[in-house]
């Protein structure tokens, strides 16, 4: 399968996760971009961040049109997320891939445990 097709399928999976769960597409993107598409890990992390913005905007627009998004309540999260993104973006270049993988793994583990506990 050509890389463009693999990238499109990977993006579709991330978009579906974003639509179903409200976020989380990046959890699919990084491992798939590395293992299936052969992308270098640091580039896969950066690519997933760039891809999640438009996917999240589309999902948010759909939720808003269906009456499921309170924009006024979302502003503090948006501002906090922007600050966190700037800080993490600056740290990203200085952090070793070993630590990036560990942090990413802990986030996945934490999300999985939280999801199971909420069932």
TrEMBL record:
GO terms for cellular component: plasma membrane. The chain crosses the membrane at residues 12-33, 45-65, 71-92, 99-117. It holds the Pfam family TauE. It is found in: Cell membrane; Membrane. Keywords: Cell membrane, Membrane, Transmembrane, Transmembrane helix. It is a multi-pass membrane protein. PANTHER family: MEMBRANE TRANSPORTER PROTEIN MJ0441-RELATED, MEMBRANE TRANSPORTER PROTEIN YJNA-RELATED. Belongs to the 4-toluene sulfonate uptake permease (TSUP) (TC 2.A.102) family. This is Probable membrane transporter protein.
